[in-house]
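Hi all, long-time lurker, first post. I run a small reading group and we've been trying to get comfortable going from sequence to structure in the token notation. Rather than ask abstract questions, I figured I'd post a concrete chain and ask someone more experienced to write out its structure so we can walk through it together at our next meeting. Sequence below, copied exactly:
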Amino acid sequence: MSQTIDNPFFAKLWTVMSTHETDAIRQLRRENLAGLSGRVLEVGAGTGTNFEYYPDTVTEVVAVEPERRLAEHAQRAATATRVPVTVRTDTVEQFMASGSEPFDAVVCSLVLCSIEDPETVLRQLRSLLRPGGELRYLEHIAATGGRARLQKIADATVWPRLFGNCHTHRHTEEGIVGAGFEVAGARREWTIPRWLPLPVAEVAIGRAVKP
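-- Answer (accepted) --
Happy to help. Here is the structure in token form:
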């Protein structure tokens, strides 16, 4: 049985934000999905922003989005895609517990920052992949210096409450390697000017493989 998440403030905020993404973010989304094929699991689909960027070589996308308002947007977006997309309203933990055929790839876009136990979830996602399957990720990451201090303050105060449990100071790439993936290519990108005092200015984009 699905268990939806009811977070009306974040759902409204994210719906507005996802329809006003910068060209830089859209290009990173497109790059993150380039070259995928076969059966794909997308974790935390939001409003379905990624759907239009999946290449024709993808035969099926199973998209998990537990916030019911966001899932409604994602379901509408799924009707206009080039590839078959099924939107599920389970949490990712519930979806994994329900059992599934192996996937060729898992896509995580700006979602691992909001999962309560990302290390455990990453290990479980790895188990859903066939050998040689890929994890494609586009994620907020822990900074250093003054921005790291800003991230820690944000995470300990209002940021997670306002932004759907987002924690900005997470060592996501270390978690991916710790879960048993081999990183085959990764880099970091600034998505807003470095001088702006925001905790989510930098993201990591990468490809990791299940040996």
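A couple of things your group might point at:
The mean pLDDT is 93.
Helices lie at 8-18, 23-33, 68-78, 92-98, 118-128, 145-156, 159-162, 172-178.
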